[in-house]
Amino acid sequence: MELFCNPAVASVYNSPAQRARVISEQWFSENSYCLACKSDHLTKTPANTRATDFSCNICGHSYELKTFVRRPRKSLVDGAYATIVAMIESGTAPTLCLLERTELWRVQSLTAIHSSFLTPWVIERRQPLSEHDRRAGWVGCNICLDRIPLDGEIALVEKGIAEDRVEVRRRFQRFLPLSNLPSDQRGWSTLTLSVIRELKKSEFSLSDVCEREQRFAVVYPGNRHIRPKIRQQLQVLSDLGVLSFKGGGRYALAE
Known about the structure:
alpha+beta, PvuII Endonuclease, Chain A, Arc Repressor Mutant, subunit A, 2 domains, 3-stranded antiparallel beta sheet, 7 helices, 31% helix
């Protein structure tokens, strides 16, 4: 993988934002690959395609590229709130690709935020634009990256070094079955995984997770059956191979 972008491809543009978009998209087009299948090529989508910059011609998985000199860790400004929520609920949300680069356009990191981990809980509605704005009333959103467990972040490039393609795909495809679940169910699964990671234990008990029932109640305030839902999600994560059941209400995280 070539880790230097070519600024010359944007020589006809004056706007820094346009230049960054053209340079990063050119690099991504030449160096990216599909994470969801074995295709080593992604296709640029037509201009103005909603929340999608590239897609795979083989499996149809979609990607949205965002470029930064310093990538955000906590929250990411995104597009229209209604659009991204509708895509999440319909199971068509793209995988976000966060490209971090130096001032000289060397790629420092490229991180995929797995589409299956984009759930309504991680989308924060922003205030509508004021009546004095050209797009008065428009409602954008923030993606709360700190609500996504680390399992949902897959590094393709880290600290200026490209990761092994086979391992990247293995980590990504492990969670593809979640995409077959309704968005609400995916929300429960990813929240459960997030709580488990917060335990910082390689082995834990059902009661360890249930003790954090309040974390689930904040996200699902109307649910009166949180503990049964937790047990259900532990089974889902076990079926994915993320957990192994040790018996007696105990579980272990897989490598």
